[in-house]
């Protein structure tokens, strides 16, 4: 039985050491960023979002150490910056948590939180969420997963924030490095009730649901062969490695990325060393 309350990848969380410096870096790469958000006190984190349609990226930094953000801090200590977790869209987080409990897993949450949002007209509103996480130990390829119910979509998907100079439109794939692609893909498949499929180069993809981005598990060697000439310095052998982004105009992408650009086959890439631990590969829509 497929999970009824979980639909596809919602957003990718990139953990960073210095939140404001990372935001400026991504602005230089042609992304439009939301104003900085500060999460509820128990979370102790702040963020900037990079909004696409129907998904987005989140730059996340720890502002105050709390029990809740201990796993995120441990990730940065072990691996440095990069993709630390992936969110699914939840229709109903409370019901979704009960679905995975019925499968013998103990969910973390559901947890309600919010952050203030400055709207384009200058008024202050709030973005409100209800999330739950799969158990911390259930992290295929070293990447944690959780589900996010958006209670105020209108304060998150703001049209002015969805237009990017680099022409990014949406996430096509989340690439996760692992020495055991088949094993970790099967692990995720069990957690979200999706069937893995082996790709031509031996990588293993897991659909996230609907028309949302796929997960792809692959070795660092396979990643290097997919993007020849792109230095993978800073990536761990196990963990979130890359995001494949759909571009509406590759010429605009190349112009916006400027000196960070590396062409690799049909993709225009930013190596992880220049994108806070995450390889960015822009491809035609």
From TrEMBL:
Record InterPro entries: Glyas_Bleomycin-R_OHBP_Dase, Glyoxalase-like_dom, VOC_core
Record-linked PROSITE patterns: VOC (PS51819)
Family matches, as SUPFAM superfamilies: Glyoxalase/Bleomycin resistance protein/Dihydroxybiphenyl dioxygenase
Residues in VOC domain copies: 8-150
Alphabetized PANTHER family for the sequence: BLL2707 PROTEIN, GLYOXALASE-LIKE DOMAIN-CONTAINING PROTEIN
Protein name: VOC family protein
């Amino acid at each position: 039985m497929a999970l009824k309350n979980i639909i596809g990848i919602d957003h990718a969380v990139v953990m960073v050491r210095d939140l404001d410096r990372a935001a400026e870096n991504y602005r230089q790469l042609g992304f439009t960023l939301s104003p900085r958000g500060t999460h509820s006190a128990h979370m102790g984190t702040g963020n900037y979002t990079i909004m696409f349609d129907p998904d987005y990226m989140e730059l996340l930094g720890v502002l105050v150490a709390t029990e809740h953000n201990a796993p995120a801090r441990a990730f940065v200590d072990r691996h440095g910056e990069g993709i630390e977790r992936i969110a699914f869209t939840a229709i109903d987080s409370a019901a979704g948590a009960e679905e995975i409990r019925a499968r013998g897993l103990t969910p973390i949450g559901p947890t309600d939180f919010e952050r203030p949002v400055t709207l384009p007209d200058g008024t202050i509103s709030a973005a409100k969420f209800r999330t739950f996480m799969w158990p911390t130990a259930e992290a295929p390829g070293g990447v944690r997963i959780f589900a996010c119910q958006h209670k105020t979509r209108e304060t998150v998907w703001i049209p002015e924030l969805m237009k990017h100079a680099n022409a990014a439109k949406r996430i096509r794939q989340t690439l996760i490095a692992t020495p055991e692609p088949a094993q970790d893909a099967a692990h995720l498949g069990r957690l979200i009730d999706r069937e893995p499929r082996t790709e031509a180069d031996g990588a293993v993809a897991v659909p996230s649901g609907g028309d949302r981005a796929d997960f792809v598990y692959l070795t660092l060697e396979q990643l290097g062969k997919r993007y020849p000439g792109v230095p993978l310095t800073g990536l761990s052998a196990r963990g979130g490695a890359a995001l494949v982004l759909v571009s509406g105009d590759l010429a605009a992408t190349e112009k916006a990325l400027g000196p960070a650009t590396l062409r690799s086959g049909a993709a225009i890439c930013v190596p992880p060393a220049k994108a806070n631990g995450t390889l960015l590969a822009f491809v035609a829509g």
